[in-house]
Design goal:
The complex is a heterodimer. Chain A is of the alpha/beta class. A 6-stranded mixed sheet of chain A has the order 6-7-8-4-9-10, with helices on both faces. A 4-stranded mixed sheet of chain A has the order 1-5-2-3, covered by helices on one side. Chain A folds into 2 domains: 171 residues, P-loop containing nucleotide triphosphate hydrolases (Rossmann fold, 3-Layer(aba) Sandwich), CATH 3.40.50; 60 residues, no CATH class. In chain A, strand 7, helix 5 and strand 8 form a beta-alpha-beta unit. Chain B is mainly α. Chain B has 2 domains: 58 residues; 212 residues, MetI-like fold. In chain B, a hairpin with a 5-residue loop joins strand 1 and strand 2. Classes of the chains: A alpha/beta, B mainly alpha. Chains A and B meet through strand 6 of A and helix 7 and helix 8 of B. The complex binds adenosine-5'-triphosphate and magnesium ion. The site of adenosine-5'-triphosphate has 13 residues of chain A, from strand 2, strand 3 and helix 1. Chain A: This is Nitrate ABC transporter ATP-binding protein. Chain A: Keywords: ATP-binding, Nucleotide-binding, Transport. Chain A: GO terms for molecular function: ATP binding; ATP hydrolysis activity. Chain A: It comes from Longimycelium tulufanense. Chain A: It holds the Pfam family ABC_tran.
């Protein structure tokens, strides 16, 4: 069974000790995670990469408390009065089709003074370039704009910790690069604790303080690299020789993992 | 942060908008014309067939005679009286039963134990033809309006309840997870997630229920009633007055179509996110191009 603790020291935001997760799917039980251990320091930006289906989303949902681990220990921050401790950006379906853009952002804000909540929501919509679309419905937006609504909601909560599951995955390459720059600026300005799942090694190295590579299913930490580039960071670091080296190193390991999975399948 | 969206429509944009608006208006008009044309042609054919004796004008009187009869019955107050009696019975059963069906359905969809306790029982009752319980209701409540309104109410209740329940059960689990992740609980969860997510299917139930409600109201009026559209039709058969019977049938058809339309219009009102824009207001892409 999972044991849960509230974060006690200020340096740890999230921690997982020997966390395993068993799913009961159509073709019998399946280990999504096996003895996964991980430590996320407060104020750090941690990127998680790994082959598809290795349990990245599952790990994030366990850290958020949306899913119960089958065994192991989880440490997560507790909600304080004003802000929920964590805000989640989902891999898909992050916006509700029956709410307007503004109401979708308000959805994430705790009930209270309507005028203040609207002001906060509008501010974040403006910062993600969605001013003028407050009363539009999601089906009237492009995929990238919908994703920005989901990101605005997460930031608007004022939560100190953000858990993002491939928030830029559905975007075209150009929008994605612009959003990466924006995220970089937002996160550096806000000093939040971020756990960020992505499939893109470049994105992970550009945004993260640390990149954790998860093994093929059942997922556990395969390798971990510290990203040495200073902040504030600009997208130009991608031309750095060290960046290219790190990227190759990660790809080497990842290729192995994807390979074992293919071989088993 | 950069401002990506410029909301200006240039001349080309205006042009495209006008063309799109014209196209949609033309499509809408064509639909209306077609919808009117088909029944009109059918009635004309009937009129012609009855006048040249292809069909028996005693059992299939030409539409003009039915129309004359209808005007006469409206003038004498007979048709409005019967129509009013039917509408009152129908609404008297429909409105409370639909409200109760939605509430019970939502509750059964939200609380698994309640759904398990009542689901199979309700499914069995749902399958029972409601008109078959009318004798029982007459036995219990006597010959007044109560058993007739109850028969309508029972029909409507089960249809709306079953649709509301399955609407809640079919909500995407990821949507519920989103609510949980953002601490949206209780009343807010009901108003922001459960109800809007179930509205489309709830309205399907409400539309089906209104049609069935008309059927059951007319059917219960066949038996031991002295006013109402059902009584009108039945009595016309007994007195062999085919024109009067056709007036009753037309009134029943129009009533069903009107009420279904009212329910649909209500659905359009409460689900703004499902509306297609009526006029082609352009969406702006990043550099101000018009993207329709
Ligand atoms: N609710 C569930 N029931 C059964 N199996 C599940 C469930 N959720 C996830 N799984 C399984 O657990 C494994 C890990 O899923 P998860 O969504 O965490 O992968 P992922 O690493 O996020 O993949 P991707 O990169 O493609 O999003 C998958 O094999 C999936 O089939
Ligand atoms: Mg995933």
């Amino acid at each position: 069974m999972q044991r849960t603790h509230a974060t006690s020291d200020t340096r740890t935001a999230f921690a997982a000790h020997q966390v395993s997760k068993l799913f009961f799917g159509g073709d019998g039980p399946l280990w999504a995670l096996r003895d996964m251990s991980l430590h996320v320091a407060g104020g750090s930006f941690t990127c998680i990469v790994g082959p598809s289906g290795c349990g990245k989303s599952t790990l994030l949902r366990i850290l958020a408390g949306l899913e119960e681990a089958s065994s192991g220990e989880v440490v997560r921050p507790e909600d304080d009065g004003a802000h929920p401790a964590t805000a989640f950006v989902f891999q898909d379906s992050g916006v509700l089709p029956w709410l307007t853009v503004l109401d979708n952002v308000l959805f994430g804000l705790p009930p209270g003074n309507r005028r203040e909540r609207v002001a906060v929501a509008r501010e974040w919509l403006a910062r993600t370039g969605l001013s003028g679309f407050e009363s539009a419905y999601p089906h009237q937006l492009s995929g990238g704009m919908r994703q920005r609504v989901a990101i605005s909601r997460a930031f608007a909560t004022g939560s100190p910790c953000l858990l993002m599951d491939e928030p830029l995955g559905a975007l075209d390459a150009q929008t994605r690069m612009l959003m990466q720059e924006e995220l970089l600026a937002l996160c550096e300005a806000e000093r939040k604790t971020v756990v960020f799942v992505t499939h893109s090694l470049e994105e992970a190295l550009l945004l993260g303080d640390r990149v954790i590579l998860v093994s093929a299913r059942p997922g556990r930490v395969r390798t971990e690299v510290e990203v040495p580039f200073d902040r504030p960071r600009s997208p130009d670091v991608q031309h750095h020789a060290e960046f290219v080296d790190l990227r190759f190193h990660l790809w080497d390991v990842l290729r192995d993992e994807v390979g074992t999975e293919r071989a088993e399948a | 942060m950069k401002q990506y969206v410029e909301r200006t429509v240039d001349a080309l944009g205006e042009e495209v908008v006008r063309a799109e608006t014209r196209r949609r208006r033309w499509l809408r008009r064509r639909d209306v014309v077609l919808a009117v044309l088909t029944p009109t042609l059918a009635l004309l054919a009937w009129q012609w067939a009855a006048s040249v004796d292809v069909i028996d004008a005693r059992t299939f009187p030409p539409p003009t005679r039915t129309l004359t009869k209808a005007v006469e019955m409206i003038g004498s107050g007979e048709l409005p009286r019967d129509l009013l009696a039917t509408v009152l019975r129908l609404l008297g059963g429909y409105l409370p039963a639909a409200a109760a069906g939605i509430l019970v359905g939502l509750a059964m969809g939200s609380w698994r134990a309640l759904g398990a306790a009542l689901g199979p029982l309700f499914a069995a009752l749902y399958a029972l033809p409601k008109i078959a319980v009318l004798p029982l209701l007459l036995l219990v409540f006597g010959l007044g309006d109560t058993p007739r309104i109850l028969a309508v109410a029972i029909t409507v209740f089960f249809v709306t309840q079953i649709n509301a329940q399955s609407a809640v059960r079919q909500i995407d689990p990821r949507t519920m997870e989103l609510a949980r992740a953002y601490r949206v609980r209780g009343w807010r969860r009901l108003c922001l997630v459960l109800v809007p997510a179930s509205l489309p299917q709830m309205f399907t139930g409400l539309r089906v229920a209104v049609g069935l409600g008309v059927v059951v109201t007319i059917a219960v009026e066949f038996v031991a009633a002295d006013e109402g559209i059902g009584y009108l039709i039945w009595n016309s058969w007994q007195l062999f007055q085919p024109e009067r019977m056709y007036v009753g049938l037309m009134a029943a058809a129009l009533l069903g179509a009107t009420l279904t339309g009212v329910v649909s219009a209500f659905g359009w009102l409460v689900m703004p996110w499902r509306r297609q824009p009526a006029t082609g207001r352009p969406r702006q892409s990043r550099n101000g191009e018009t993207a329709l």
